[in-house]
Design goal:
It is built from 15 helices and eight strands. A three-stranded antiparallel sheet has the order 1-2-3. A three-stranded mixed sheet has the order 5-7-6. The protein has a two-stranded parallel sheet with strand order 4-8. A hairpin with a 5-residue loop joins strand 2 and strand 3 (about 40-45). Helix 3 (about 75-105) packs antiparallel against helix 8 (about 245-270) and helix 13 (about 390-400) crosses helix 14 (about 410-435). Mean pLDDT is about 85; it is low at about 1-10 and about 455-459. With about 450 residues, the chain is mostly helical. The chain has three domains: about 20-55, no CATH class; about 75-270, Growth Hormone, Chain: A (Up-down Bundle), CATH 1.20.1250.20; about 275-450, no CATH class. It is found in: Membrane.
Length: about 450
Amino acid sequence: MLHILKSSGPVMTDLEIQTLCMESYGSRSARRYQVLPNGKLSSVADASEAWHFRSLHHIFMSIFLPQGYPESVSTDYLAYQFWDTIQAFASSITGTLATQAVLKGVGVGDETSTVAAATVTWILKDGTGMLGRIAFAWSKGSKLDCDAKQWRLFADVLNDVAIFMEIVAPAFPACFTLIICTSGFFKCIVGVAGGATRAALTMHQARRDNMADVSAKDGSQETLVNLAGLLFSLFLIPIVVDNLLLTYAFYALFTIFHLYANYQAVRAVCMETLNRARLHLVLQHYLKWEEVPTPAVINPQEPLLLGFRQQLKITFGAPLHTVTSSVADFQKALEGNSSNYLIFFKQPTGVISILLHRQADSVDVIKAYTHALLLEALLYQDMETCALERRSLLSLQHQLRKESSKEDPRIHSKIHQFLDRIFPKFLAGLTAAGWVTDRNLLGPEEWRMEWLSAEKKML
């Protein structure tokens, strides 16, 4: 309710002015509106707000940070962008050293070299890179979302390898074209992997359907960093142009900065979506402590090197004809199964194959992969240390390890029943801990099928 105090004289005091409302720009206090005795609305800016809006600091934030920062982005945005800026600067410097070496190698400054020879070398380099881009996108494109952090780190390491090849290429004139073409091949792989994972990380950071704004501001930040690197290179190149040893020394120094900053950048990212490595860590923690850890606990434990290996090979979203040709095996997979997936386990070969129903949603996909991870845990993990239904897990483990001798052919049905019992609580724990369950990054193949449940067959 608004109260206006009447003036008792010609002099107006602070008590005669009432605040009607306040507004802010993001998390920063902006201004308050007051009702004057004459009925007009007065706008009064806070001292801090007035300073921010007139300062270079605010102008800088408006140009290089997403609108609404920090509320409009994820909490890990600032840490990631800080380290990403450092790595981009280091990469810009090493890239300049590589460009100088390549230009020298193709004959710039050499009177005996021809334009035609340099042009052919450049065309071969670009053509090889184009082929590499197509081949890599075809073979790994569907996997880049699932392990964005790992592929981002891989791309930057490969970029450093490619730059090193370009720097040393002039020292091997007989193999110069081959080295340059190989480097171009690697750099195009870097372009695909880096661009795709950047898009995945931008989607993670954007919290107000502002992915385009976050991406645009990231581009502005990178442009500013590259400009700073360009200016630094203007002073660096005259120093190293005729000194090969100094070129190698600067490359080594800035590569160390680049790799360290990249590691810190991807380690700073805290993803709330479940991929295979994160779900594996979450389930291990849940079995041991009977509580679901938060993304902040699990992300620092996630391996950042590609090739995350499990003790069992899990084929997710497989077609039936690659799994079995036996009706008996198919019926066995249906036994005791009311879920939207079928699981086949070939214990002698250590292969788990998961078939998904056409109606399977994200929760079904998470449950299916959890089932596979549970099988792996029962085979290789010590259930004595588990707090979650220890006796049931020990019993299942004992029966599963003897399954090859056919002492209890119903073991897989029992595992289904056990998972059906614990999964609702596990799913609720995931949601409560802050994990996203309506989408996932588990990366199943696109094969889907339909089957009749055991209950429907009996009708």
